[in-house]
Amino acid sequence: MLRLAARRPGPCGHGRPSLPPRVLAPLRHNSRHMEKIRAAVIGVGYLGRFHAQKYAQLADCTLVGVTDSQLETAARVAAELHTRASVDYRDLLGRVDAVSVVTPTPSHRDIALAFLESGAHVLVEKPIAESAAQAQQLIDVARRHRRVLQVGHLERFNPAILAAEPLLAAPRFIECHRMAPFKERGTDVNVVLDLMIHDIDLVQMIVGSPVATLDAVGTPVFSGEIDIANARLRFENGCVANVTASRVSLKTERKLRVFCDDAYLSIDLQQKILTVIRKRSTPAGAGQLPVQIEEQSFDQGDALLAEISGFLAAIRGERAVLVSGEDGLRALQTAIAISEAVQRRPGAPAVRGHEH
Fold first, then answer.
1. Is 272 part of a structural domain of the chain?
2. Same domain, 142 and 198
3. Given pLDDT bands bounded at 50, 70 and 90, which one contains residue 261?
Protein backbone atom coordinates (compact mmCIF):
# COMPACT_ATOMS: atom_id res chain seq x y z
CA MET A 1 0.00 0.00 0.00
CA LEU A 2 1.24 3.48 -0.87
CA ARG A 3 0.77 5.70 2.14
CA LEU A 4 1.51 9.39 1.75
CA ALA A 5 0.82 11.44 4.82
CA ALA A 6 -2.23 13.68 4.96
CA ARG A 7 -2.52 16.89 6.87
CA ARG A 8 -4.79 17.02 9.91
CA PRO A 9 -8.37 17.67 8.74
CA GLY A 10 -9.89 21.08 9.34
CA PRO A 11 -13.53 22.03 9.98
CA CYS A 12 -14.54 21.54 6.34
CA GLY A 13 -12.92 18.16 5.92
CA HIS A 14 -9.54 19.47 4.83
CA GLY A 15 -6.61 20.89 6.69
CA ARG A 16 -4.83 24.16 7.12
CA PRO A 17 -1.05 24.32 7.23
CA SER A 18 0.33 26.26 10.13
CA LEU A 19 3.44 27.03 12.06
CA PRO A 20 3.39 25.54 15.56
CA PRO A 21 2.86 28.08 18.35
CA ARG A 22 6.50 27.72 19.43
CA VAL A 23 7.49 29.11 16.02
CA LEU A 24 4.83 31.78 15.75
CA ALA A 25 5.57 33.23 19.17
CA PRO A 26 9.19 34.28 18.52
CA LEU A 27 8.20 35.69 15.15
CA ARG A 28 5.62 37.90 16.82
CA HIS A 29 8.21 38.99 19.35
CA ASN A 30 10.75 39.84 16.67
CA SER A 31 8.19 41.67 14.52
CA ARG A 32 7.99 44.48 17.08
CA HIS A 33 11.61 45.32 16.26
CA MET A 34 11.25 44.94 12.50
CA GLU A 35 10.32 47.99 10.47
CA LYS A 36 10.61 46.93 6.86
CA ILE A 37 11.47 43.38 5.87
CA ARG A 38 14.58 43.27 3.71
CA ALA A 39 13.75 41.01 0.77
CA ALA A 40 15.56 39.65 -2.27
CA VAL A 41 14.77 37.40 -5.23
CA ILE A 42 17.13 34.67 -6.38
CA GLY A 43 16.51 33.99 -10.06
CA VAL A 44 14.76 36.77 -11.96
CA GLY A 45 13.83 35.10 -15.21
CA TYR A 46 10.20 35.00 -16.35
CA LEU A 47 8.57 34.23 -12.97
CA GLY A 48 11.27 35.63 -10.71
CA ARG A 49 10.88 39.07 -12.24
CA PHE A 50 7.25 39.08 -11.12
CA HIS A 51 8.31 38.12 -7.58
CA ALA A 52 10.69 41.06 -7.55
CA GLN A 53 7.99 43.44 -8.77
CA LYS A 54 5.64 42.39 -5.95
CA TYR A 55 8.25 42.93 -3.24
CA ALA A 56 9.10 46.30 -4.73
CA GLN A 57 5.51 47.51 -4.60
CA LEU A 58 4.77 46.43 -1.02
CA ALA A 59 5.07 49.10 1.65
CA ASP A 60 6.17 46.75 4.42
CA CYS A 61 9.36 45.51 2.75
CA THR A 62 12.39 46.76 0.86
CA LEU A 63 13.75 44.91 -2.18
CA VAL A 64 17.46 45.08 -1.42
CA GLY A 65 18.67 43.01 -4.36
CA VAL A 66 18.11 40.47 -7.11
CA THR A 67 20.44 37.80 -8.41
CA ASP A 68 20.52 35.73 -11.56
CA SER A 69 23.12 33.54 -13.22
CA GLN A 70 22.82 35.88 -16.21
CA LEU A 71 24.18 39.29 -15.21
CA GLU A 72 22.30 41.02 -18.03
CA THR A 73 18.99 39.62 -16.72
CA ALA A 74 19.74 40.62 -13.14
CA ALA A 75 20.87 44.10 -14.19
CA ARG A 76 17.77 44.68 -16.29
CA VAL A 77 15.38 43.78 -13.45
CA ALA A 78 17.46 45.70 -10.90
CA ALA A 79 17.35 48.83 -13.07
CA GLU A 80 13.60 48.47 -13.51
CA LEU A 81 13.02 48.19 -9.76
CA HIS A 82 15.81 50.48 -8.49
CA THR A 83 17.70 47.83 -6.59
CA ARG A 84 21.06 46.03 -6.78
CA ALA A 85 22.01 43.21 -9.14
CA SER A 86 24.34 40.28 -8.61
CA VAL A 87 25.17 36.94 -10.23
CA ASP A 88 25.96 35.21 -6.92
CA TYR A 89 23.21 34.67 -4.35
CA ARG A 90 25.87 34.36 -1.64
CA ASP A 91 26.40 38.11 -1.88
CA LEU A 92 23.05 38.49 -0.09
CA LEU A 93 23.57 35.99 2.74
CA GLY A 94 23.19 37.79 6.07
CA ARG A 95 21.88 40.94 4.35
CA VAL A 96 18.22 39.96 3.95
CA ASP A 97 15.32 38.87 6.14
CA ALA A 98 13.44 37.05 3.38
CA VAL A 99 14.03 35.64 -0.10
CA SER A 100 12.11 34.11 -2.94
CA VAL A 101 14.01 31.26 -4.60
CA VAL A 102 12.83 31.18 -8.22
CA THR A 103 15.61 29.19 -9.85
CA PRO A 104 15.53 25.84 -11.67
CA THR A 105 14.46 23.00 -9.37
CA PRO A 106 17.88 21.31 -9.09
CA SER A 107 19.24 24.38 -7.25
CA HIS A 108 16.33 24.88 -4.83
CA ARG A 109 17.79 22.89 -1.94
CA ASP A 110 21.26 24.44 -1.88
CA ILE A 111 20.07 28.03 -2.22
CA ALA A 112 17.15 27.74 0.23
CA LEU A 113 19.37 25.93 2.73
CA ALA A 114 22.03 28.64 2.59
CA PHE A 115 19.50 31.38 3.33
CA LEU A 116 17.73 29.45 6.09
CA GLU A 117 21.04 28.81 7.81
CA SER A 118 21.95 32.50 7.48
CA GLY A 119 18.72 33.44 9.30
CA ALA A 120 16.46 34.37 6.39
CA HIS A 121 12.89 33.23 5.78
CA VAL A 122 12.39 31.44 2.47
CA LEU A 123 9.64 31.27 -0.15
CA VAL A 124 10.71 28.57 -2.59
CA GLU A 125 8.93 27.96 -5.86
CA LYS A 126 7.37 24.57 -6.51
CA PRO A 127 8.43 21.85 -6.54
CA ILE A 128 10.10 22.46 -3.19
CA ALA A 129 13.14 20.38 -4.16
CA GLU A 130 14.31 17.54 -6.38
CA SER A 131 13.75 14.81 -3.81
CA ALA A 132 11.79 14.10 -0.65
CA ALA A 133 15.06 13.86 1.30
CA GLN A 134 16.07 17.36 0.17
CA ALA A 135 12.63 18.73 1.05
CA GLN A 136 12.76 17.17 4.52
CA GLN A 137 16.19 18.70 5.06
CA LEU A 138 14.79 22.17 4.33
CA ILE A 139 11.85 21.57 6.68
CA ASP A 140 14.19 20.44 9.47
CA VAL A 141 16.56 23.38 9.05
CA ALA A 142 13.68 25.90 8.94
CA ARG A 143 12.26 24.41 12.13
CA ARG A 144 15.63 24.42 13.87
CA HIS A 145 16.28 28.06 12.98
CA ARG A 146 12.64 29.09 13.59
CA ARG A 147 12.29 30.44 10.08
CA VAL A 148 9.29 30.51 7.78
CA LEU A 149 9.50 28.07 4.87
CA GLN A 150 6.72 28.59 2.33
CA VAL A 151 6.26 26.79 -1.00
CA GLY A 152 4.96 28.54 -4.13
CA HIS A 153 1.83 26.53 -4.86
CA LEU A 154 0.11 29.57 -6.34
CA GLU A 155 -3.32 28.02 -6.97
CA ARG A 156 -3.99 28.10 -3.22
CA PHE A 157 -4.40 31.86 -3.67
CA ASN A 158 -6.77 31.59 -6.63
CA PRO A 159 -9.99 33.47 -5.69
CA ALA A 160 -12.17 30.68 -7.11
CA ILE A 161 -10.42 28.14 -4.86
CA LEU A 162 -10.72 30.41 -1.83
CA ALA A 163 -14.46 30.83 -2.48
CA ALA A 164 -14.96 27.09 -2.99
CA GLU A 165 -13.14 25.92 0.13
CA PRO A 166 -16.11 26.12 2.54
CA LEU A 167 -18.10 23.88 0.16
CA LEU A 168 -15.48 21.16 -0.22
CA ALA A 169 -16.45 18.83 2.60
CA ALA A 170 -16.24 15.05 2.06
CA PRO A 171 -15.59 14.88 -1.70
CA ARG A 172 -16.24 11.54 -3.42
CA PHE A 173 -14.58 12.12 -6.79
CA ILE A 174 -12.31 14.84 -8.17
CA GLU A 175 -11.29 15.45 -11.76
CA CYS A 176 -8.53 17.84 -12.83
CA HIS A 177 -7.36 18.96 -16.27
CA ARG A 178 -4.35 21.25 -16.71
CA MET A 179 -3.35 21.82 -20.33
CA ALA A 180 -0.76 24.16 -21.81
CA PRO A 181 1.11 24.65 -25.08
CA PHE A 182 4.71 23.49 -25.20
CA LYS A 183 7.40 25.90 -23.97
CA GLU A 184 11.07 25.23 -23.40
CA ARG A 185 10.83 26.96 -20.03
CA GLY A 186 10.08 24.43 -17.30
CA THR A 187 11.35 21.36 -19.13
CA ASP A 188 14.09 20.83 -16.53
CA VAL A 189 11.42 18.68 -14.83
CA ASN A 190 8.66 16.47 -16.23
CA VAL A 191 5.05 17.61 -16.63
CA VAL A 192 4.07 15.98 -13.33
CA LEU A 193 6.53 18.15 -11.40
CA ASP A 194 5.99 21.15 -13.67
CA LEU A 195 2.19 21.36 -14.01
CA MET A 196 0.37 18.44 -12.40
CA ILE A 197 1.89 19.19 -9.01
CA HIS A 198 -0.40 22.24 -8.73
CA ASP A 199 -3.45 19.98 -8.87
CA ILE A 200 -1.84 17.33 -6.69
CA ASP A 201 -1.46 19.97 -3.98
CA LEU A 202 -5.06 21.16 -4.38
CA VAL A 203 -6.46 17.62 -4.36
CA GLN A 204 -4.55 16.63 -1.26
CA MET A 205 -5.65 19.82 0.48
CA ILE A 206 -9.29 19.12 -0.40
CA VAL A 207 -9.32 15.41 0.44
CA GLY A 208 -7.31 15.52 3.68
CA SER A 209 -6.58 11.78 3.60
CA PRO A 210 -3.49 9.71 2.72
CA VAL A 211 -3.09 8.28 -0.77
CA ALA A 212 -3.73 4.52 -0.64
CA THR A 213 -2.93 3.53 -4.24
CA LEU A 214 -2.21 5.21 -7.53
CA ASP A 215 -1.90 4.30 -11.18
CA ALA A 216 -0.44 6.50 -13.89
CA VAL A 217 0.39 6.65 -17.57
CA GLY A 218 2.34 9.21 -19.56
CA THR A 219 4.89 9.79 -22.27
CA PRO A 220 7.45 12.31 -23.56
CA VAL A 221 6.44 14.09 -26.76
CA PHE A 222 8.70 17.08 -27.44
CA SER A 223 11.21 16.87 -24.60
CA GLY A 224 13.30 14.19 -22.92
CA GLU A 225 10.83 14.15 -19.99
CA ILE A 226 7.20 13.12 -19.57
CA ASP A 227 5.15 15.78 -21.41
CA ILE A 228 1.64 14.39 -20.88
CA ALA A 229 0.42 12.28 -17.97
CA ASN A 230 -2.70 10.99 -16.29
CA ALA A 231 -2.90 9.68 -12.73
CA ARG A 232 -5.69 8.03 -10.77
CA LEU A 233 -5.33 8.44 -7.02
CA ARG A 234 -7.40 6.48 -4.51
CA PHE A 235 -7.36 7.86 -0.99
CA GLU A 236 -7.82 5.95 2.25
CA ASN A 237 -11.15 7.70 2.91
CA GLY A 238 -12.53 6.33 -0.39
CA CYS A 239 -12.23 9.48 -2.50
CA VAL A 240 -10.82 9.03 -6.00
CA ALA A 241 -9.06 11.72 -8.05
CA ASN A 242 -8.37 11.59 -11.77
CA VAL A 243 -5.65 14.11 -12.68
CA THR A 244 -4.44 14.95 -16.21
CA ALA A 245 -1.67 17.34 -17.18
CA SER A 246 -0.25 18.17 -20.60
CA ARG A 247 2.28 20.69 -21.84
CA VAL A 248 1.80 19.71 -25.50
CA SER A 249 -1.77 20.96 -25.88
CA LEU A 250 -3.05 23.45 -28.46
CA LYS A 251 -5.02 25.28 -25.77
CA THR A 252 -4.61 26.42 -22.19
CA GLU A 253 -7.04 24.95 -19.67
CA ARG A 254 -7.07 24.70 -15.89
CA LYS A 255 -10.22 23.10 -14.53
CA LEU A 256 -11.10 21.19 -11.40
CA ARG A 257 -14.38 19.38 -10.74
CA VAL A 258 -15.40 18.10 -7.32
CA PHE A 259 -18.31 15.72 -6.74
CA CYS A 260 -19.82 15.48 -3.26
CA ASP A 261 -22.93 13.65 -2.03
CA ASP A 262 -25.19 16.65 -2.49
CA ALA A 263 -23.35 18.96 -4.88
CA TYR A 264 -21.07 19.19 -7.90
CA LEU A 265 -18.53 22.01 -8.06
CA SER A 266 -16.85 23.08 -11.29
CA ILE A 267 -13.90 25.43 -10.82
CA ASP A 268 -12.34 27.17 -13.80
CA LEU A 269 -8.98 28.16 -12.35
CA GLN A 270 -7.98 30.13 -15.41
CA GLN A 271 -11.16 32.19 -15.87
CA LYS A 272 -11.81 32.37 -12.10
CA ILE A 273 -15.36 30.97 -12.31
CA LEU A 274 -17.00 28.81 -9.64
CA THR A 275 -20.14 26.88 -10.58
CA VAL A 276 -22.09 24.99 -7.91
CA ILE A 277 -24.83 22.54 -8.92
CA ARG A 278 -27.06 21.16 -6.16
CA LYS A 279 -30.18 19.07 -5.87
CA ARG A 280 -33.24 21.26 -5.40
CA SER A 281 -34.49 21.51 -1.83
CA THR A 282 -38.07 21.58 -3.18
CA PRO A 283 -39.67 19.66 -6.08
CA ALA A 284 -38.92 21.11 -9.52
CA GLY A 285 -41.76 22.94 -11.24
CA ALA A 286 -42.88 22.42 -14.80
CA GLY A 287 -39.97 22.91 -17.19
CA GLN A 288 -37.44 23.24 -14.35
CA LEU A 289 -34.34 21.14 -13.96
CA PRO A 290 -34.15 19.01 -10.79
CA VAL A 291 -31.05 20.99 -9.81
CA GLN A 292 -30.22 24.56 -8.96
CA ILE A 293 -27.15 26.17 -10.50
CA GLU A 294 -25.19 29.02 -8.97
CA GLU A 295 -22.28 30.63 -10.80
CA GLN A 296 -19.81 33.19 -9.48
CA SER A 297 -17.14 35.00 -11.44
CA PHE A 298 -14.20 36.61 -9.72
CA ASP A 299 -11.77 39.34 -10.70
CA GLN A 300 -8.48 37.96 -11.95
CA GLY A 301 -6.84 39.50 -8.91
CA ASP A 302 -3.15 39.02 -8.20
CA ALA A 303 -2.47 35.61 -6.70
CA LEU A 304 1.29 36.15 -6.63
CA LEU A 305 0.90 39.40 -4.70
CA ALA A 306 -1.40 37.59 -2.26
CA GLU A 307 1.14 34.79 -1.91
CA ILE A 308 4.03 37.14 -1.16
CA SER A 309 1.91 39.31 1.15
CA GLY A 310 0.96 36.16 3.06
CA PHE A 311 4.62 35.17 3.28
CA LEU A 312 5.56 38.54 4.77
CA ALA A 313 2.61 38.38 7.18
CA ALA A 314 3.76 34.94 8.35
CA ILE A 315 7.25 36.33 8.93
CA ARG A 316 5.74 39.03 11.14
CA GLY A 317 3.72 36.41 13.03
CA GLU A 318 0.42 37.89 11.86
CA ARG A 319 -0.84 34.67 10.27
CA ALA A 320 0.08 31.05 9.71
CA VAL A 321 1.83 29.89 6.56
CA LEU A 322 -0.77 28.89 3.97
CA VAL A 323 1.50 26.47 2.05
CA SER A 324 4.08 25.03 4.42
CA GLY A 325 7.20 23.03 3.72
CA GLU A 326 5.27 19.94 4.80
CA ASP A 327 2.64 20.69 2.14
CA GLY A 328 5.37 21.04 -0.46
CA LEU A 329 6.91 17.74 0.63
CA ARG A 330 3.55 15.95 0.46
CA ALA A 331 2.88 17.17 -3.07
CA LEU A 332 6.42 16.28 -4.13
CA GLN A 333 6.14 12.75 -2.73
CA THR A 334 2.97 12.13 -4.70
CA ALA A 335 4.42 13.68 -7.86
CA ILE A 336 7.50 11.46 -7.62
CA ALA A 337 5.32 8.38 -7.03
CA ILE A 338 3.29 9.24 -10.14
CA SER A 339 6.44 9.77 -12.21
CA GLU A 340 7.82 6.42 -11.08
CA ALA A 341 4.51 4.69 -11.84
CA VAL A 342 4.63 6.07 -15.39
CA GLN A 343 8.16 4.80 -15.88
CA ARG A 344 7.29 1.33 -14.51
CA ARG A 345 4.55 0.70 -17.04
CA PRO A 346 5.42 -2.00 -19.61
CA GLY A 347 6.67 -0.40 -22.80
CA ALA A 348 7.11 3.04 -21.22
CA PRO A 349 9.69 5.10 -23.17
CA ALA A 350 12.92 5.98 -21.38
CA VAL A 351 13.05 9.45 -19.84
CA ARG A 352 15.68 11.32 -17.89
CA GLY A 353 15.75 10.21 -14.28
CA HIS A 354 15.50 12.19 -11.04
CA GLU A 355 17.20 11.86 -7.71
CA HIS A 356 14.84 10.36 -5.15
1. yes
2. no
3. confident
- Average the pLDDT over 41-54 and give the result: 97
- Max Cα–Cα distance, the chain, nearest Å: 72
Distance (Å, whole) CA 42 – CA 88: 9
Whether 111 and 227 map to the same domain: the answer is no
Q: In this structure, are 258 and 160 located in the same domain?
A: yes
Output the 3-class SS for 338-353: HHHHHHHCCCCCCCCC
* pTM of the complete model: 0.86
Q: Tell whether 167 and 279 lie within a shared domain.
A: yes
* Residue type at 354 in one-letter notation: H
Q: Are 192 and 245 in contact (CB under 8 A)?
A: yes
Residue 109 CA to residue 115 CA, distance in Å, equals: 10
3 state DSSP class of 303:
helix
CATH code of the domain in which 57 resides: 3.40.50.720
Confidence of residue 43 (pLDDT cuts 50, 70, 90): very high
149 bridge partner residues: 122
Q: Which residue has the higher pLDDT, 193 or 279?
A: 193
- Number of compact structural domains in the chain: 2
CA distance 177 to 42: 31
For 64, the domain range is 21-153+305-323
Q: Cα 8 to the chain's mean position, in Å?
A: 18
Cα(328)–Cα(340) distance, rounded to whole angstroms?
18
Task: Clarify whether residues 141 and 31 are in a common domain.
Answer: yes
pLDDT confidence of residue 281: 73
Pairing of strands 253-259, 211-219: unpaired
Q: What is the CATH number of the domain that holds 178?
A: 3.30.360.10
pLDDT higher than 50, residue 147: yes
pLDDT in tens, 325-355: 999 999 999 999 999 999 987 766 666 544 4
DSSP string for 4-71: B--PPP-TTSS------HHHHHHHHHHHTT-SSEEEEEE--SHHHHHHHHHHHH-TTEEEEEEE-SSH
Helix, strand, or coil here: 256? Answer: strand
Q: Strand 61-67 relative to strand 37-42: parallel, antiparallel, unpaired?
A: parallel
Residues near 240 by beta carbon (within 8 Å), at least 6 away in sequence = 172, 173, 174, 232, 233, 234
User: What is the structure's pLDDT at 251?
Assistant: 92
